[in-house]
Design brief:
The protein has a four-stranded antiparallel sheet, with helices on one face. The protein has a single domain, classed as Regulator of K+ conductance, C-terminal domain (Alpha-Beta Plaits), CATH 3.30.70. The protein is an alpha+beta fold. The longest helix has 12 residues, at 78-89. Helix content is 21%, strand content 24%. It is globular and about 35 Å long. It has three helices and four strands. Residues 6-90 form the RCK C-terminal domain. InterPro entries: RCK_C, RCK_C_sf. One of its GO terms (molecular function) is monoatomic cation transmembrane transporter activity.
């Protein structure tokens, strides 16, 4: 059975957030693959899509390499999203 379209499905699951995170020039993610970063394991978030320039890549493959300026759309609980924000924000983090 198909559920009728909602105005915002996230209203139905209020404990989850979707945010967009930009890969900045100083990001430790640059030149790393999605497989190397392991968002779900390190932060608990799911990468839904990656925007590169004008192209949106839904469910990017594990061998996708992060580049400066990429926009990552991630899904997770607020505390998981906060960990992802930190990962994107820490230059030189190891």
């Amino acid at each position: 059975m198909l559920i009728p379209k909602q105005n915002n499905i996230l209203n139905e699951i209020p404990n989850l957030e979707i945010i967009a995170l930009k890969v900045e020039p100083i990001s430790p993610l640059i030149s790393q693959s999605l497989a190397e970063v392991q968002f779900r394991r390190t932060c608990g978030v799911t990468l839904l899509a990656l925007k590169r320039g004008e192209e949106l890549h839904e469910h990017p493959p594990a061998n996708t390499i992060f580049r400066e300026g990429d926009i990552a759309y991630v899904l997770g609980k607020p505390e998981q999203v906060a960990r992802a924000v930190e990962l994107f924000a820490h230059a030189g983090a190891e």
